[in-house]
Specification:
alpha/beta, 3-stranded parallel beta sheet, 21% helix, 10% strand
């Protein structure tokens, strides 16, 4: 009622949290060169036909013949495509991850089939840095996870706290943000935990006027509203607390907040996504634009995807466009539709 709802906002990629977080920072999936000669070879999907870009998974011999008889069984795992793109959950190469390298606790175990090799393509962070724009990714529970206390997977309480999710930290997959690097120290920040500036470091930086020009904030797991291990009410209250703090801060007159999700919130949605490229767009998801510059009480019908956040940053700061954004735009135009917008239709400019 106060700001703008985008009702044609689609997740960037067909897939889950891992792939859509990657799309948020790079507009493309990660790659695993020579995966068939690595410990992750068991993660490579088998598809029908000879095309490695095929979209129909090969069924196991004992798969039910009908959905009436049960869910399908597949002939393989599905984290990697036959041409070695990582599309389903794999762990980061660096801590905090799903495993730990026995020789170096700052890294994940490279011998684990769930560990993805370090990525080297450009991210929105690299594009911002190249233009001298200050930015940071705040991860709730990051420091606790580094200390081995953040990923509560199983807990007597529901939800576990802070239930850190390593695959929700996309920049931790890239060599340019490896442990010991200056870029990691500057840009990958602990978001702390909880609801107050005393424990939540994003709120602390906000209160102190230390937020960078561009800030990504990923709440701790029990506050991220993800189905299965978090609850909607706690997440809604957390978002409200963040927005309230921003509205009361000196930065508010110059602030634009984009609130969206990875894939949760769009399941079973009745609106079909537009035709695009091999990776998406995926299912429609909620998105709100909150800002003194947002149109008030407005429903924006423009077609957006997760990459529209990157398009806005590209336009606002004159960045070099990431290749994945151009690929998506070309594919959607070729399919007879419009390219995804850059969120400016939601703003009073």
């Amino acid at each position: 009622r106060q700001y703008t709802l985008c009702d044609n906002f689609f997740m960037g990629a067909f897939g889950g949290s891992f792939l859509n977080h990657q799309y948020l920072v790079a507009a493309q999936p990660p790659v695993f060169p020579d995966a068939d000669r690595s410990p992750a070879k068991m993660q490579i999907a088998q598809v029908e036909g000879d095309d490695p870009a095929g979209i129909r998974l090969k069924l196991a011999d004992d798969s039910p013949k009908s959905a009436m008889q049960g869910p399908p069984k597949y002939a393989s795992r599905t984290s990697l495509t036959p041409d070695f793109f990582a599309v389903d959950t794999m762990g980061p190469p660096y801590a905090p991850g799903f495993t730990t390298d026995p020789a170096d606790p700052r890294r994940a175990d490279p011998a684990s089939p769930t560990t993805l090799v370090a990525q080297q393509h450009r991210t929105i962070g690299d594009a911002l840095s190249e233009r001298g724009v200050d930015w940071a990714w705040y991860a709730g529970g990051w420091q606790l996870a580094l200390e081995g206390r953040g990923d509560v997977g199983v807990s007597a309480d529901f939800p576990g706290r802070p239930n850190f999710q390593p695959h929700h930290q996309p920049l931790n997959y890239f060599t340019q943000f490896a442990p010991g690097s200056a870029a990691r120290e500057r840009h990958l920040r602990d978001g702390g935990v909880g609801e107050t500036a005393q424990t939540n470091r994003f709120l602390a930086d906000l209160a102190a006027g230390r937020l960078p020009t561009v800030a990504f904030y990923k709440p701790q797991g029990d506050l991220n509203m993800h189905a299965g291990y978090a609850d909607v009410d706690a997440g809604d209250r957390h978002i409200a607390a963040i927005v309230d703090a921003l509205q009361k801060s000196p930065q508010w007159p110059h602030t634009l907040v984009i609130i969206t999700v990875d894939e949760n919130g769009g399941w079973w949605d009745p609106v079909a996504p537009p035709k695009g490229d091999r990776w998406g767009p995926g299912t429609r998801v909620p998105a709100l634009i909150v800002s003194p510059h947002a149109k008030k009480g407005f429903v924006d019908h423009t077609v957006y995807d997760t990459g529209s956040i990157l398009r806005f940053l590209t336009r606002r700061f004159g960045l070099a466009k990431l290749p994945g954004l151009a690929l998506r735009e070309q594919a959607m135009r070729a399919a007879g539709g419009a390219a995804p917008g850059d969120l400016t239709a939601a703003l009073e400019l």
